[in-house]
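User: I'm writing a short methods note and want a consistent example. For Nucleoside diphosphate kinase, I'll paste the sequence; you return only the structure tokens, no commentary, since I'll be parsing the reply automatically.
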Amino acid sequence: MLQEQEAHAAELERTFIAIKPDGVQRGLIAEVISRFERKGFKLVAIKIVVPSKDFAQKHYHDLKERPFFNGLCDFLSSGPVVAMVWEGEGVIRYGRKLIGATDPQKSEPGTIRGDLAVIVGRNIIHGSDGPETAKDEIALWFKPEELVKYTSNAEKWIYGN
Ligand code: UDP
Ligand code: MG
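Assistant:
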């Protein structure tokens, strides 16, 4: 049984989620964590940090040609960010669903951005958009030893094994 659970856990996917400075300042840390936690995803790493501008530019390197890149990196490095790794079946794709569309005007009600944000430049949360970015972003923000391996008591109720 334990072996089965470990095998199951090893297959689980991980995503990088960050509450940006606006979400932290607005007191939305618990709200965001709660939505991922209640869904059944497992928190395996968390820290609060003020990223440097250089670090923010690394995080958003894919967007460096976009006109908003500089302002975005200034903003991400302007205050504390809650960086997290969440684990679970389908967490990358479903995490993006929980977050909602990039522009909060287009995010559905019920999503984090839909319920809690108004403009694209202050959309409170980041989530990896695919398996490759998830891997790269987790490696950028966390050392391997900062990811905690554990079996949650809820897992057998969430996954049925
Ligand atoms: N962004 C912006 N203006 C835009 C598009 C994006 O300020 O026109 C910001 C926004 O905060 C977004 C971030 O840049 O969350 C990263 O953009 P991306 O397209 O990767 O959106 P996300 O993956 O965060 O939904
Ligand atoms: Mg993105």
